[in-house]
Amino acid sequence: MLLPMSGVIGMNSSMDDMTLIQQSQRHHLVVRELGEEIDLEIGPGEDDPSFGNGALIGAPMRESSAEEHGESKQMGMVSQIRNDSQDMSKNQQVKRKKKVVKRWREEWADTYKWAYVDVKEGTPRIFCSVCREYGRKHRRNPYGNEGSRNMQMSALEEHNNSLLHKEALRLQMASKDKIVVDKPVYVKVAMSKTAGSILEATLKRDPHEVEFIQAVQEAVQALERVIAKNCRYVNIMERLLEPERVIVFRVSWVDDRGVTHVNRGFRVQYNQSMGPCRGGIRFHPSMNLSVAKFLGFEQTLKNALSPYKLGGAAGGSDFDPKGKSDNEIMRFCQSFMSEMYRYLGPDKDLPSEEMGVGTREMGYLFGQYRRLAGHFQGSFTGPRIFWSGSSLRPEATGYGLVFFAQLMLADMNKELKGLRCVVSGSGKIAMHVLEKLIAYGALPISVSDSRGYLVDEDGFDYMKISFLRDIKAQQRSLRDYSKTYARSKYYDEAKPWNERCDVAFACASQNEINQSDAINLVNSGCRVLVEGSNMPCTPEAVQILRKASVLIAPAMAAGAGGVVAGELELNHECSLMHWSPEDFESKLQDAMKQTYQRAIKAATDFGYQKESPEALVHGAVISAFLTIAQAMTDQGSV
């Protein structure tokens, strides 16, 4: 089960009741079994004698029903009997066990947002969201023996007194800046002590980097058996979680009206132990350091898993290319590259396309790089056949996703032909996924954008895909497609995951599939989910899909087509060979097969069944990490 832990910092143990209530509103709650009888606290004495008569903090006032009135009378009788017995034995100090049972109601949700309900040994109990314990097993104050006495207060108080909170508060005071995280950080319950310590250290160091922490959590969870088998990997993992180089810089550019704008640029050269860095450049308003580190970390593992060993990097800017003229984008790209060029090169870092960066943007970036660096490096760019390497560079990632899905289905004695497929996104990757699905005889029925999704019950064909590309090139809405094809429909503010399907391809952005989306996918009959974007599922969604035995193809394995194409480009230029599209596609298929086999082998080597939902996910991380760990060990502490 996944437990939420708020990123809001700044509480202290001396809060009054009103402050506690207000603070609890910022915490996130996972509520199960509403209306069940919950054992709030079971354990030996030292309880507050006034607890039985005290009201719940922040509980709403309401008229009691007859049943509740009867319960309160019984509680009053029990309390009176207890008081009488205490009067009869004043000289005897006897530790008693107290059991307080209340009904978990929906109206308590706001009060208990710092807690959650789960079943322990067949009994529903209220757990603390911080230490993941209940009742007397609740962690005590690490700075002393005193501790909260009632479960109603303990979770919030123990959060204030925990080492994690103390460290976060120290960092906040040092920076004089309030750290607020809108999204919850989820911590896995079933995690070994050593693996948990790695995650806790990351939380202490970067408590506000939500995307990066989520990526680290998923990797650490996958590596639990590896770390348990050899403790030396703990130190290597700690080194791996710190990027080798982080570059943050100002990007000033002038729009067509002559107004100067300022954006922030990022480049995280995450790890070069395997070779020169390769990674995308993303232009999107949501881009920040946390996203850059998360993308760099994922790219490092992806590159290590591929047959061609490269280091990992990622970067970009919070610049939004939508609605900008060609001249404005050119001026921005030139300003961006004026700072970045000194860190790039064939033996240093070779950037590639990512969200918001296509052929046009890469052309402008390369032109400025060539001008400043004074040499021509064609593999820097990619999409243009006449000044880059392979002829299938833009299609590589999308085609690789379909090849990977076909490999998974082959092991299940199935094929893509005739299967109903749902695709999210409408960018380069999504369009190339549609193309290859049609070539394999599948029936792709959907695409999506930031405003909603389009579904065509007849399925897409090559002519329809060409029409979709025209719509996107003209920056029109996907809704215009339904004006031409009557059997299609566009849904506003919705996602395609409730459409009936056999295979789903998530090609939009990170965390696009949340808990409710995962439930919709399971109910729609999906059996295979292929990750085209990095980390498309939230932790809750991953748990739901695994429980439903939905096979997940992780992005670091299924999305390795771009890495393969980039390395083939470099080899192409070095050897001056000419590859036809058929030759390139054959090499891409071979590379994807090797990647798939490596992930499966690593999973089985560490005890995961090949058919289990987590086999590919854990196997991909394990294989990539062991490759990087060996290189880092050989090269020493650098």
UniProtKB/TrEMBL annotation:
<dbReference type="GO" id="GO:0005829">
    <property type="term" value="C:cytosol"/>
</dbReference>
<dbReference type="Pfam" id="PF00208">
    <property type="entry name" value="ELFV_dehydrog"/>
</dbReference>
<dbReference type="InterPro" id="IPR006095">
    <property type="entry name" value="Glu/Leu/Phe/Val/Trp_DH"/>
</dbReference>
<dbReference type="InterPro" id="IPR006096">
    <property type="entry name" value="Glu/Leu/Phe/Val/Trp_DH_C"/>
</dbReference>
<dbReference type="GO" id="GO:0004354">
    <property type="term" value="F:glutamate dehydrogenase (NADP+) activity"/>
</dbReference>
<dbReference type="Pfam" id="PF02812">
    <property type="entry name" value="ELFV_dehydrog_N"/>
</dbReference>
<comment type="similarity">
    <text>Belongs to the Glu/Leu/Phe/Val dehydrogenases family.</text>
</comment>
<dbReference type="InterPro" id="IPR036291">
    <property type="entry name" value="NAD(P)-bd_dom_sf"/>
</dbReference>
<dbReference type="InterPro" id="IPR050724">
    <property type="entry name" value="Glu_Leu_Phe_Val_DH"/>
</dbReference>
<dbReference type="InterPro" id="IPR046346">
    <property type="entry name" value="Aminoacid_DH-like_N_sf"/>
</dbReference>
<feature type="domain" description="Glutamate/phenylalanine/leucine/valine/L-tryptophan dehydrogenase C-terminal">
    <location>
        <begin position="390"/>
        <end position="636"/>
    </location>
</feature>
<dbReference type="GO" id="GO:0006537">
    <property type="term" value="P:glutamate biosynthetic process"/>
</dbReference>
<dbReference type="InterPro" id="IPR006097">
    <property type="entry name" value="Glu/Leu/Phe/Val/Trp_DH_dimer"/>
</dbReference>
<dbReference type="InterPro" id="IPR057456">
    <property type="entry name" value="Znf_C17orf113"/>
</dbReference>
<keyword id="KW-0560">Oxidoreductase</keyword>
<dbReference type="Pfam" id="PF25431">
    <property type="entry name" value="zf-C17orf113"/>
</dbReference>
<protein>
    <recommendedName>
        <fullName>glutamate dehydrogenase (NADP(+))</fullName>
        <ecNumber>1.4.1.4</ecNumber>
    </recommendedName>
</protein>
